[in-house]
Amino acid sequence: MAKRKSTKKKSIPNFQRKQPRPQVIPALLAQSHKTNIAHIFENPKIWEEQILNLANAHQTRMVQDLLKAIPFWNWLQQQPAPNNSFLTPWNKSIVRIVYGGLDPLSVSGSLAAGGRYNVGGAQQIHIDGLSDIQMQAALYASDTEACAKAEAGQFLGQAEIYELHANREILLWDVDKVISSYAWPGLQSLVDGEPFNKLWKLQKTPAISQILGMFLRSFGGDGILSKSVQYPTGFVVTIFLKDDNTSKQLFTVSRI
Questions:
Q1: What is the pLDDT of residues 91-134, one digit of tens each?
Q2: Residue 225 near residue 131, CB atoms below 8 Å
């Protein structure tokens, strides 16, 4: 009689069993052309999701800023001119810090990216309610070297410090007095918060402080005097300018 074949499976030693392949998570290597510093980003999928979240949040902020800007601009145009007593004579030199060999009297950066009190090309928008908003240049400086350093922050490259001397007396709008004379809710905090809330070249709609700066410019004066938010005892001086030529006509420069 033939023997029945056993149906019992032979056991396979652990070392002979097929092991599941470990999941390979790709990594992204990014290297700065400026500093030559390399960073390895593990799991780029997570970074991609975070970037998308940041982009969506930024888009939401732009819409929120736009919804604030339109009614403020429409309201401001109905207000009386600011009192001329808010213009402060300024006869002192001012200090400006630049990086990367930039001309200290150049306003090209403010024309392109905008600034706290001037609308740049980045913020020009052609929609109903803001069609009158125009790109205008400004030069930003401080009353002392210490304040200028605090306002400039830390950037890559060699910092160059300059003292700017106006060839005539300049008249600056005291922005705190101007703000206190207009009854727009929370205007002081909105204006004070702009430098921290904005990376100007990424700001695609006019900010409240920029609209206020354009409004004041339309009534004359040479610029705006505001308290520094980075250096409590200092002041920031914003000079209204047309282009680099008008800047060089108004100031002479000396390196500190």
A1: 999 999 998 889 999 999 999 999 999 999 988 887 776 777 88
A2: no
Q: Which residues of 237-255 are buried (b: 16+ CB within 10 A; e: fewer)?
A: bbbbbeebebbeebbeeee
Q: What is this structure's pTM?
A: 0.78
Averaged pLDDT, 22-47: 66
Locate the domains of the chain by residue range: 83-255
- Comparing 73 with 100, the larger pLDDT belongs to 73
